[in-house]
Amino acid sequence: MAAAPGEGSSDVRSRVLAARERQHARGWLNAQLPAALLREHCTLDAAGRQLVADAIDRGGMSARAVHRALRVARTISDLTGERDVGAMRLAEALQYRAYEARQKLAG
Description:
The chain contains 5 helices and no strands. The protein is an all-alpha fold. α3 (46-57) runs parallel beside α5 (87-106) and α4 (63-79) packs across α5 (87-106). The two termini are 27 Å apart.
């Protein structure tokens, strides 16, 4: 039960404000990013494209669900200061989406 101390509130606030500034610089908040612009702002490498294909083929995700996961991955990348959306960030976002789906089924 003893956890290491986490990041301070002021540090988190700074990261969130910087991420929001990146989004404003792109002209869209990630949550409002139109599907047509996802490819431009969420460019994936081969590993990321394979993750998307697996999420659709094996996980049964719809295009809309994949788009939501891409927006989340873009936000995670913004929070970590990364220019590109890497496979690791996309995998993290897909896990959040899967967890959310399981919670809806359980609830």
